[in-house]
TrEMBL record:
This is Reverse transcriptase domain-containing protein. CDD domains: RT_LTR. It comes from Paspalum notatum var. saurae. Pfam families: RVT_1. Residues 13-172 form the Reverse transcriptase domain.
């Protein structure tokens, strides 16, 4: 993570891109795959539970790759590069059921803690509490589970014992939830919506804007 100044002289955190990720076109395989409809958590509810607490961010290291693929199914992930052919032994990006499979696995691992002392959205884990000491105790419980199941975390993206930060694209802090300033600049440059679908898409952001009608009355 690096911090840069925008045109208004505000400090904006930017994620530093390091390394490469392999992305395979699995459209034909996905079309023949029976879909797993395991749902992801509601982001707005998760953020509400995290707001006004001390918390820690934990990030799974190469999340999908921590899930092994059954040996008899590994050949289905085969892809070809110049002069060589490879097969994944661990879950790859691009597989249609990867998000559902990963979320189900994480929910099973942390089933005793979810919505109590932590929130889980894919490979983003947030441990929270109303006090510093309780948060430290909760963090110890979660890290112990990670050790027991060999769940590897990315230390570069983990933040411990903080009162504010960016979670799933939104800023969580003592007074509640705010939109990430880096995304406000993008919204300001968007053209006005011209159809119902575009209006609904934009209005979806209002859950994270306190009293929007007072800020800018219609």
């Amino acid at each position: 993570m690096t911090v840069v100044k925008n045109q208004n002289n505000e400090l904006i955190p930017q994620r530093t891109v390091t390394g490469w990720r392999m992305s395979i076109d699995y459209r034909k395989l996905n079309a023949a795959t029976r879909k797993d409809h395991f749902s992801l958590p509601f982001i707005d509810e998760m953020l509400e539970r995290l707001a006004k607490h001390s918390f820690c961010y934990l990030d799974g290291y190469f999340g999908y790759h921590q899930i092994p693929i059954y040996p008899e199914d590994q050949s289905k992930t085969t892809f070809t590069c110049p002069y060589k052919t490879f097969t994944y032994r661990r879950m790859s990006f691009g597989l249609c059921n990867a998000p559902a499979s990963f979320q189900r696995c994480m929910m099973a691992i942390f089933s005793d803690f979810i919505e109590d002392i932590m929130e889980v959205f894919m490979d983003d884990f947030s441990v929270d509490s109303k006090s510093f000491d309780d948060c430290l105790e909760n963090l110890e419980k979660v890290l112990k589970i990670c050790q027991e199941v060999d769940l590897v975390l990315n230390w570069e993206k983990c933040h411990f014992m903080v009162r504010e930060g960016i979670v799933l694209g939104h800023k969580i802090l003592e007074r509640g939830i705010e939109v990430d300033r880096a995304k406000i600049e993008v919204i300001e440059q968007l053209p006005p919506p011209t159809n119902i679908k575009a209006i609904r898409s934009f209005l979806g952001q209002q859950d994270f804007i306190g009293d929007p009608s007072k800020i800018s009355p219609i």
